[in-house]
Amino acid sequence: MRKTVIAGNWKMNMTAAKTGEFIKALAPEVASMNNADIVLCVPFTDIAAAVEAANGTNIAIGAQNVHFKENGAYTGEISAEMLVESGVKYVIVGHSERRQYFGETDITVNLRAKAAINAGLTAIICVGETLEMREQGITAEIVAMQTKVALMGISAEQLKKVIIAYEPVWAIGTGKVATAEQANEVCAIIRNVVAELYSKADADELTIQYGGSMNAGNAEALLAMSDVDGGLIGGASLKVTDFTAIVKAAQ
Questions:
Q1: What is the DSSP string of the chain?
Q2: Residue 89's pLDDT is what?
């Protein structure tokens, strides 16, 4: 039985003070909801406040990026060891905004994922196509290639520390959402790729999220799909009522 994981990606939002207030408001709303793992991936500067506020709750804290080296002259970067020591359990790797704005490639995504896993973190690896790619009819090829490169050098045992998030780039922050059937189709493609790389049993245990503008209104339909095992939530994760509704839909 694979885990359902609802993870919020706050992106560049919320101060440390607001983080504490948010989690204190969210925690009692989701305290009885135990059919899904609940994660908030917060900015680096909010991690300490988030970990403190989430202590004793069923909310885990994640980061939004990690560097692939243990240390060194990488100004502005954060290592996996730093994240682990700060109390983080998860980290997003290869989000489309990192690829689009900050030069992430399939290769650096793989390196970051391995660094995270080797440090004991769960890596939420993002894959997804642009609108042009979808219109060209190459969604399956693009997502398969991104998945294969991201998982290079990751063993079947290490795969237990991986979540893959399907994020159609054309649906992130645009208000556009893949239909439940479209999301399920691509999540199934990802699962088939993982089955080819590892085994059907490994693929069946892998959590695959949908991450393209999931919200309180569409979460139930998306989460009801056979191959959608949760969500990587953007804007809706910044509102207690909306995020609670999504977690509730996962029950």
A1: -PPPEEEEE--S---HHHHHHHHHHHHHHHTT--SSEEEEE--GGGHHHHHHHHTTSSEEEEES---SSSSSS-TT---HHHHHHHT--EEEES-HHHHHHH---HHHHHHHHHHHHHTTPEEEEEE---HHHHHHT-HHHHHHHHHHHHTTT--TTGGGGEEEEE--GGGSSSS----HHHHHHHHHHHHHHHHHHS-HHHHHH-EEEE-SS--TTTHHHHHTSTT--EEEESGGGGSHHHHHHHHHHT-
A2: 98
Q: What's the pLDDT band for 242 if we cut at 50, 70, 90?
A: very high
CB contact burial 2-30 (16+ within 10 A = b; e otherwise):
eebbbbbbbbeebebeebbebbeebbeeb
Question: Per residue in 106-138, pLDDT tens?
Answer: 999 999 999 999 999 999 999 999 989 998 999
d(CA 50, CA 41): 9
Average pLDDT score over the chain: 96
Instruction: List Cα–Cα distances, 80 to 23, 153, 160, in angstroms.
Output: 24, 18, 17
**In contact, 209 and 5? CB cutoff 8 Å:** yes
- Cβ neighbour number for residue 59 with a 10 Å cutoff: 21
Please answer whether residues 61 and 39 qualify as being in contact, where contact means their C-beta atoms are separated by less than 8 angstroms.
Answer: yes
For the annotated catalytic residues, the residue numbers are: 95, 167
Q: What is the pTM of this model?
A: 0.97
Q: Domains of the chain, with CATH numbers?
A: 5-249 (3.20.20.70)
